[in-house]
Amino acid sequence: MRVAQLLLWCVLLEDYGGNLGRAAITSDSVRQDASSSSATNPTLPDAPSFSEPIGNVTAAIGKEAILSCTIRKLGNYKVGWLRVEDQTILSMGKRTVTHSSRFLVTVEEAKKAKNQTRSREDEEATWRLHIRQLREADRGCYMCQINAQPMLSQLGCVDVLVPPDILSNGTSEGEVSVTEGENATLSCKASGRPPPRVVWRREKSDFILMRGLHESWLQVDSQSGEKLELTRVDRRQMGAYLCIARNEVPPTVSKRVYLQVNFAPSAKVRNQLLGSPLDTDVSLICSIEAYPKTINLWTRKEQVIMSGGRYEIDERSYPEEEWKTTIELKIKRLQKTDLGEYTCSASSSMGKTEATIRVYEIERATVPTRATSPSWRKQNRGGKSKSVYGTTVNRVFHQLSTPAMQKSTSRLIFSNRYYSTSSTTVDPRGPLIVKEKNAFSESKEESKVLNVAGIASILFTKQICTICLTFSLTLR
């Protein structure tokens, strides 16, 4: 550092001597100037001085930084700039000596006030060092020097702001793969000046799913820090995560890290039994959850079913839940030969799973009918019977489960009237077919029963009257 300062001082001194028209500067004169300067303070009225400190400058990388050195009473003295860190001389007077075109020196003379005359020695001048297209290597301190005796100098420092950058070293790869139930750590290392703040977010969701106390799930908008810790990973946490780094310098940068959660496949069907009339379209739906993706097939009697003819296979995936897949088998115009068991299978490197559906035939429903006979009309007009009527009903009930039926019959007898009712309780899981019944035959049988009951009642009454009359005569 001392060598650079002396070198700059010597160069400036030579330039100063040339401007005065001297042939050379003798060692005696230099010695005399040094002795006189050492005896007196450089802040004497006839010596140059700095009007104000240079100060520190902060600028973003790629921008321009300007250091200003304001000098009073410079006279015929010269000003030079050098970089303190590596002792590189940048300029001597208005001339730049560095090979880099990014450095430039400009001089601005101070404006005189109106009605005021000032000598050249009393004027102020500002010497500016321009550093264009700033680089990180330009960060540091710079010295402004005056070739006075003794040499005058002051420092000004430049701070270069750097936008955030995500480093490859210490950052997770584009994909992180774990097995469901294991712990996962997503890392993101960022640099910049000032140091950037790192935040994690989900790419296609408004929240990050985190485990809380007692195995409860918490939904958080974001998570701060260079590492995102996920404990006992669940398939619902699978997806893309964004590492976002920002500081005071634009632009903000991010990196995408995809979390893969591997687990064995599982298959489910809505109903294990599916009933439908013949000559109708039937859809068999199977829901599969697995990662990595599975090979999905529909089979029957160990034969793979392919799309074509009366069969159509449709496979759907869900972007928001990438581990879910639905495969649907459509059978057009169901026939007798299509009845039976179908198997939905899914296989991957994590395992294999199956689910079955049995297709069976159900009868079509018929339109209800009602019949009335002339004899019923006569009985109704005569008022002899009010509870007997004839109907013919044929109903069909079906449900997509195991067919079953429970049946109960009850008979009620009130006074001398006889009613016969039949009630059927239908199991909701099975079909029920009620065959036709002839109400007129039941009506005739009921009429006979009523006649016999009436005759027996009359005979019993007569016997009671005879017994009572005989008993009363005996007492008299």
TrEMBL record:
Residues 1-21 form the signal peptide. The keyword Signal applies. It comes from the Eukaryota. It is found in: Cell membrane. Keywords: Cell membrane, Disulfide bond, Glycoprotein, Immunoglobulin domain, Membrane, Repeat, Signal. The keyword Repeat applies. This is Ig-like domain-containing protein. It comes from Odynerus spinipes.
